[in-house]
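Hypothesis: this fold can be encoded by more than one sequence.
Test: take the structure tokens below, design a sequence, compare later.
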């Protein structure tokens, strides 16, 4: 049952991005990553009357578990400067991640990609995941990751308290670093524990 009583999302169908490197994109996703090319749409440009919309190819690769990753190739266009993928850690936030089941598989992917000439990060562990990072020919950040443990109900509670603390700080304008988040969250954790204890006492 959906917790908010409305319609339910059933998983990601596809993600899509533009590319101005048709051959490199096809060879990277189909040949280096081994994702089957499963669909292509070709169309005359459409859009608002006051906007020139180029003809395009929209092609899809099977990205696993019923999802696809897709690209638009706008025929005869040049990549606008405003759509060039930047470098730096903030640009890495906009990425696609695939999952594997084991450390051996993760290392095998690192080896495969490096053999294909792809620059790959060393594996990085962060809380519940271990990942490698790299970029496609367009500069889009990509990740392959494995889970270090299953998510538990306590993780959802922790996430709700973290976000509640962050929203409280954002609304108050009192952000001064991660320590302020930890302090605010600590007070919410204490309140949550007290509420749980009170509920337990009522149920006794």
């Amino acid at each position: 049952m959906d917790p908010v009583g409305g319609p339910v999302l059933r998983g990601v169908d596809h993600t899509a991005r533009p590319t101005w490197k048709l051959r490199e994109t096809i060879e990277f996703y189909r040949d280096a990553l081994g994702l089957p090319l499963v669909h292509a749409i070709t169309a005359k440009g459409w859009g608002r009357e006051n906007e020139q919309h180029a003809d395009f190819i929209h092609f899809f690769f099977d990205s696993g578990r019923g999802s696809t990753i897709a690209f638009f190739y706008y025929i005869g266009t040049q990549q606008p400067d405003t759509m060039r993928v930047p470098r730096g850690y903030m640009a890495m936030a906009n990425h696609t991640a695939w999952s594997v089941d084991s450390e051996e598989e993760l290392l095998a992917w690192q080896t495969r990609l490096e053999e294909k000439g792809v620059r790959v990060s060393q594996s990085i562990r962060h809380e519940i995941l271990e990942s490698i990072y790299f970029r496609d020919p367009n500069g889009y950040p990509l990740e392959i990751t494995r889970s270090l443990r299953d998510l538990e109900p306590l993780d959802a509670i922790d996430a709700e308290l973290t976000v509640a603390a962050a929203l409280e700080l954002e609304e108050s304008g009192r952000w001064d670093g991660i320590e302020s988040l930890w302090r605010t969250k600590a007070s919410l954790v204490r309140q949550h524990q007290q509420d749980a204890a009170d509920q337990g006492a009522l149920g006794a």
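The two ends are 28 Å apart (CA to CA). Residues 85-150 form a domain with the 2,3-Dihydroxybiphenyl 1,2-Dioxygenase; domain 1 fold (CATH 3.10.180.10).
Hypothesis status: open.
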